[in-house]
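Annex B.
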Amino acid sequence: MSVTALIFDLDGLLVDSEPLSRRSWAEVIAQVGYTLTDEIFVQMIGRSETEVRTLFEQVFGRDFPFETAYRLRQAHFLAALAREGVPPKPGAHDLLTYAIRAGLPRAVASSTSRAMAEGKLRSAGLREYFEIIVTGEDVPRAKPAPDLFLEAARRLAQPPASCVVLEDSVAGVQAAHAAGMRCILIPDVQPIPPEIARLATWRLRSLAEVPALLEALRANGNAPHQAGSA
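HAD family phosphatase: predicted structure tokens.
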């Protein structure tokens, strides 16, 4: 099956937003009297609001004021985003330029809100590359369910089997696998267990390596192959 479209995760894959996200959450959680550890934050990556709520209940207890913390965090992050911005990940601009030249349709599929997704893409200078953005507000289930990726494929008018997903998180790789899509795993902050990494079709070190992979697929008739681990 040839590659006819690319579907991108956002945080930690296209934009280097995880450090700002972690700082924002840590400061807000401290305001309501709790402490965010790196271990907890890593478990939050790629998860929906509902899943983060459940995680916080498990870690902090049912008395944790999630609604207040979530509202404060949204405002805190957007203010910090406007003030500081977030950079694109290395190779993002070159890969997206390559995809346009190669005639590959592109979509973003992220569990975050539309306001967050739009703000991050604009801050990183990547918004112009995408006509289609699917967020957690558009589907009933977030990653690791396949809904985001399947909706992106539907809007791209491409069969799921010919779409390639680019992901950095455990939940994202699981979602791509569940959607029946090939996946390029580019790990970021979250450790990827071997059993999850095996669900990805390829594992690369950065977005800068993706154009060469896509060119190799084109030269080989788009036959899938397993790349070496980073």
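Confidence is low (pLDDT under 50) at residues 223-230. Residues 66-84 form the longest helix (19 residues). Further annotation is deferred to the next reporting cycle.
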